[in-house]
Structures are given as C-alpha cells and as structure tokens.
User: Which sequence fits this backbone?
C-alpha cells in the first residue's frame, strides 16, 4: 500500500427515495470500475421540490475516491 | 429568471423513521405554498434519544428557499 | 416529541455589560412567547467601540430556535 | 446604541449584469424600510447558465441585517 | 438543570442498510447506559464499497453526548 | 429529473476587468457543451498584481456542475 | 517538553450565571487532576431557556487538554 | 464613507475575571488611538489553568479593525 | 524562489461602485510598494447602506501578501 | 465489515524533529493495541518555541480511530 | 496572464517516509506534464497504520492546479 | 500571566526541503526577538512546482504569536 495513489471526483446523484439511493446512483454513473472505487464521502445533502410543488427528489453531493495506482 | 428573488428560512423537522422524513415534515410545517418552495438544504442531522432511553427521533435542520418574486 | 418542528431566526443583541446580557436582550426583543423559545446559540461575539472612543458595547449574534408545532 | 437589536434574514438576489446588482435586487425585494437596513453580507455567489445554454444570471446569497429596536 | 455536565465522545457506526441504522449501531456499541445518552450529532457520512466492488456499507461519524452530572 | 446525475469540476478563470468576467472565462474554457452546464459556484476570489507592480488580474475559482445523465 | 503528549476531551458545562462559570464547572467535573489540565478551548456557547419560559442556563461546550506524558 | 479603508490586526488579551475583560485588555494594549478603533471581533475564547493547578485566566483572541483613511 | 518569505496583512477597502474597486482601494492604501505586493485574497464581501437609506458602499475584506525576502 | 464500530480520540503528540514523528509519538502514547488502531487524521499542526528562544518542538493534534467491534 | 485558465484536480498520494514525499507521489502520478502543473495545496494529512499494526503510511490529500490555457 | 497580551501575525515561509523547514524560515524572517515568540500555527501548506517543471518548494502559511506585554 505504500505508494498507492487515489483520484477524487465530485458528483451529485439523485433519487426519489432516499439519500442512500442518491449516493449509489452517483457511484453507478461515474463510469468507473467498481473494483477501483473505495469511498463516497457526503459533501452536502438536499431535497428538491418539483416545479409544480409535486414530488420531491433527494440529492447527495459526494466525493468519490478511486485507485489510480497500486503498490 | 433574470430578476427572481428568493428568501431562505431555517427550520428543524423531526421523524421517528428517517432524516428524509424529518426534512419533509419541516417543509410541510413551513406554512408556505409548495408551489413557491424550491430546495431544502441540510445544515445538520442528529438523532435524539428519549428521556427514558426508549425511542429515537431523527432530526434535520434545513434551509428552505422559496420564491418571493418572479421575473 | 416525534413530530415537533422548530423555526430558527438570527438576531443581534447588545449590552454595555456582557455578552450574556446581550444574548438575553436579543431573546427579549424577538417578540416571541418565551414558552416557545428553547435555545439561543451563539454565532459570533464582538465588542463595538463608541464613535468618540468612549464606551464599549458587547454584541452577540445568536440563532434562536422556537417551537412551531408540538407532537 | 447600547441596547439596539438587529434581525438578520437570508435572501438570494439575481441580475443579468453583476453580483453587485444582484445584491441590490435582494435588498430592494426584502420589503423592509431602507432606513432600517444596515448591511448585506455576502454568503455565497454563483452564476446560473440558461436552460438552453444562452444567457447567464449572477446570483448573490446575502444576509441582511436591519434594526428592530433603537436605544 | 443548572449545573448538569455532559461528556461528548466521537464514534463511527456502520450498516449495510442506511445512515440512520449506522447511527443507531454506534449508539448501541458505546457501552453507555441509554438513560444517560441524549443526542448523536452527525459529523460526516460516507459509503464504503467492498474490496471486490460488491456490497456497500453506510457509515456515520457521530458525536454522542451523555450526562455526567445532574443538577 | 428523478435520476439525473451531475459531475462537478473545479477551475480558475481570470480577467483584467471583473470577477464576473473571470467566471465566464472559466466556463468558456471548460471544453463542455454549454447546454449541459448549469451552475458555476464561486469558491474563492482574488486579485493578482503584475510582477512589475503594473496591471491587476481578477481571478475566480469556481465549481462547475454539468449534467452526465438525464432522467 | 520535547516528547510530552496531551489528550483532549470534549465536555459541556452549564451555569445560571455566565459562560465563564459554565466553563469552570465543566473543568471541575472532568474528574482529572487539576495539575494535569492545561487549557479549556471554547467550541460553542449557547443559552437554554427553561421549559416554562422561566430561568436561563448558560452552557459552554469546551475541549479540555491534559498531559498524559511529560518529557 | 465611500472610500474609507480599515486595517485589521489579530491579538490575544487575557484577564483573571472574564472574556469581556480580556477583550478590553487586548484593545488597550494595541497601542492605537481609541478614536480610530471600531470593532473587536472574537475569533476564539479559551481558559488557561495555572501551572500548579491554581488560578484560571480567560483569554480572548480578537481581530481589531481601525480606520487608516477617512473619506 | 527557494527561501522567499511573505507577510500577510488584512484590510477592508470600500467603493461606491464595485467590489473590484473596493479591493483596489485597499491595495492602494496599504502603504506598500506595489512591486512587492502579489495577491489580494477576498475574505468577505458586504454592502453597507447609508444611515439615511440613501447610497450603498461595497466593501471587500482582503488579505494582502507581499514579499519580505527574496531568494 | 458491515457492523464494525470505531471510536475516535483526540491527542497532541510532539517531537523535536518533525510532524511525522510527533504523530507517531501521539499514537504510541495512546495506550491502545496497535492492532486496533487504523488512522491518525491531522487536525492542526504547530511549532512551539522554547521559553528562552532556544529549541523548537513540532506538535501535531490528531484524531485516532480504533476498532471497538468487528463484524 | 490576463486570460489564463487553470483546472484543479484532487488526489491522494502516500509514502512510508513523509507527507512531503506523499505530495510528490501524488503529483508524479497525476499523468500531467510537469510544465503545466503549478501548485499542490494540502487539503488533509493523515497516517495509516498497517492491518497488522506494523508499518505506517503517510498520506496527503492535495488539490493540483495546472494550466489549461495561456494568455 | 494574568494580563499578558499577544499579537499574531501571518507569514508564508518556504524551503526546498520540508514544511518544518519552511515554518522555521518564516519565524527567522519575522524580524522579532525569538525570546518573545511563542507559537507558529500552521494555516495552510502547499508545494510549488518550478516554472520549468524542475524543482519543488514547500511553503507553510503560519500565524506567529509573540508577547507584547508581560504580567
């Protein structure tokens, strides 16, 4: 592990159900191999209300870290 | 959209079930038309334990933004 | 307690004597029933010096939370 | 000045021209007497790009403080 | 209540299901009487992805406050 | 909107005229379709003074969010 | 002093009189030898209003550092 | 007022009695004309315990702003 | 460049026109050779409203870094 | 890993040589099995100058996380 | 320099020796021309302890800025 | 110690070798008697890469506190 290097990217995922689901949607859409992903840290959470006052969407802004280089 | 103005208020909602539910309870109690509400941003989350050690309540402190003026 | 909702407002109180007194002046001037107020959290403290260099005023910027809805 | 009390509210103003203009639009829409307003502190600034990629709007989220009580 | 003293400790709980569950697991493992615990404040939330890209764990870093001394 | 995903990148733009202009220069240089860009949030602002004490450049560090996936 | 090690714990003290007094109550209740304590840093201050709107309590959340190991 | 310029310096004052007193000691020791001083903003507060566990000193770290140039 | 040392000072500049202008006014009033100044980082921005509700002043609190020692 | 729980404690280590060494001294003095320790996160770094102006000590304030419960 | 644009990416580098070395490893692994890189700002530092309690790795999370566009 | 007053100044030191060395260079260049200096707190750390991609410089932005007044 002594020389491993990680890159961190920031994304926003959303879900009509929960912030956990929103986080998983962000991870799935990152276009990265899941083998290399390690952690999704929550930066901010919010809830968006539909234009017509109907329906709410939970959104999670997260930082994803994934391995660039193994030891 | 070029001159729209929003006001932001801060509230704490609670729920025995989840922080998503606590956020929705804060929005419902804000006494505002849902048509004008746009976003509930999470400021802090906590969990309160009942006086007798029984029961937990999830609380979300949120900032609600709603439209004062449309373009 | 499971569905109680709180609103939070931000105020600045002042006093020639102390920050404790400044906080209490902010609470008294909030125009809310004291029965509904719960906590005044300090956001920032400062001390203002009179225009002529005479007299100091202690000021406390606080967030007051009060109950909108009981369970 | 020794017992003056201020209230602080949070708003978002917008303008197609500048963040200075966005701040002034927030102040004008606050529905308060300008005599009582004192300071608009910038919390965050952003720029929104139109749905069709045409047109940009500058937005300023500000905290407005105004006098509730004079000495 | 006028002389009550609280101690605050920091813990990380985890759960395969939700951040609410992760918070409750941290509380249960704190080895404290639930009668004395009052609040678990969320410090950070993250989601860990399994070594082999399979399975996600939700983690909550929380500060627990519990009563040392009653009035 | 319920499953839209955004990516966020961080850039620094500059302009001899204003921070608004610096922000727009960052957006234009991002190499992204303007149709997909939504918001440029200001992270920090500064002003750089030329090596020879002549000329000032306004710089804006911004976070740009753009849509990866529509609902 | 070159190898001294300190531990830091977080506590909340309270007092009907002042935040200075609340800080001293937290220190006295920490159950540590005063010889080893060095500094109580204020994390947050608040004022709690009694359930019946009568009586206020000043509370100080502090970090106490005390020596584990001398040089 | 339209072109006034202020300088801000950071100091730590101390007092055996209170943080208000510590702040005033910092101001008095700043070696500036009181006519030009305007505001002392609190950055951090702490309490130091004497080497022998006897005696406590309240310390306030403050930012002092004073006028360099009037309009 | 390997041993250059910078000092950083904090100032507030103001202007009836813009925050860019306020920043430049702070730099000009710092009483330093422009050759040695390098960067003015924005700490906070606000807008002050005249005592009589007439006229607004834009203020920028900035940190100025200037070279003490060249390599 | 799905139910592991960690506790986090805060310590200050010191060393005449480096902040890396100060961090390792904090870890060694924590009185915990190294098998259970996982991460020492840096909170703040400083350098203390000896009373007589001779000798400098590097200090690291760190948060140590260690496992309370394995899955 | 008046229109230069920078991009900022976030990485984590590691080293068995020091945080300086960890930062250089992150820079080398970024896959960018060193001619275009300018600054690596430290976001957080930590030290990871080996699974078996043997060996420590210093890690630096850094933001790298590199030039996209020259004037 | 009960009335000692400290002033705090902010500086940036640099070194080709380490952040510890950069901090010591800032202290040495402050032009203050070492007898009066007490602590250099790290505000930020970064690493600058030479114009031609050759050579790196470690920089430490620090706050130095030194005694203005003894008890």
Assistant:
């Amino acid at each position: 592990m002594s020389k491993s290097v990680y890159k961190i990217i920031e994304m926003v995922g959303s879900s009509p159900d929960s912030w956990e689901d929103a986080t998983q949607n962000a991870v799935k859409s990152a276009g990265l191999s899941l083998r290399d992903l390690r952690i999704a840290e929550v930066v901010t959470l919010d809830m968006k209300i539909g234009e017509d006052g109907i329906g709410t969407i939970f959104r999670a802004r997260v930082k994803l870290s994934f391995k660039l280089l193994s030891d």
Observations:
- Chains I and A do not touch (no CB pair under 8 Å).
